[in-house]
């Protein structure tokens, strides 16, 4: 039987809902203990591609809840460079396959420098998981489409579960997120048709966020490039009003991912106002848009991505593309 274009991606978007609900409620206290994460003063995230977008998203939630610094570290510091002097820090290394050589080198280098390492992966028996002090299974299961969707949603769930292990009071937020995600199974984004037409008719797309929404913006821009071959870039609402605003003098579609953080509202509103004033086609997606009221920013981001993935899928199909297998990409990208 011939597979229809996008069949894998469509199924995996649906599978992400129960998988998120399961993953966000898992008990990761043993992993925290094994890597002594509760004793650390700071964290670095190390990742590539969609995993890096999810790591960026989770880092904001960790900082907000733990009041500890969390920032990204390029794997090349270890795979191509001479490493770092580390204090009492831990590395959260995100990888769907757990097989990229640069991430494995980062785990080894980080440990050799005295840091603690946690692998967050969809492949528990992977080389990365074997090198880390402990690992977390994101529990996404098989993902066959080249563009990651289910694994991204499940990585966010695993990050939230990790936070609950570090801060037990956060478990209530995980429970609320699981319920909201399950309740969204039949929901459709009201603006879907308008977004589809706007993106199809525009050569360039900006995806704007702030805080956790900035990580979600990176993921959405990457997914647009992967599946539709449309040029898309992610920006923080704090940065986009500098040089990038000038591109709005030419046809431009802008997606604003609003996670409901009160502290970000003013900057997102200013970006929306400025882009509208110069004629850009602007869509602002909020927690209310996707039934995510009252959730934490990370959970709202997961809900926004879950709602937008079918939109991206439909754009690709209408452009005559098969999003399951973009012609220049493969499921596992090996970097060095």
Automatic annotation (TrEMBL):
Residues 28-188, 195-326 form the SIS domain. PROSITE patterns: SIS (PS51464). One of its GO terms (molecular function) is carbohydrate derivative binding. Keywords: Aminotransferase, Repeat, Transferase. It comes from the Bacteria. This is Glucosamine--fructose-6-phosphate aminotransferase (Isomerizing). It holds the Pfam family SIS. InterPro entries: GlmS/AgaS_SIS, GlmS/FrlB_SIS, SIS_dom, SIS_dom_sf. The lineage of its organism: Bacteria, Pseudomonadati, Pseudomonadota, Alphaproteobacteria, Hyphomicrobiales. GO terms for biological process: carbohydrate derivative metabolic process.
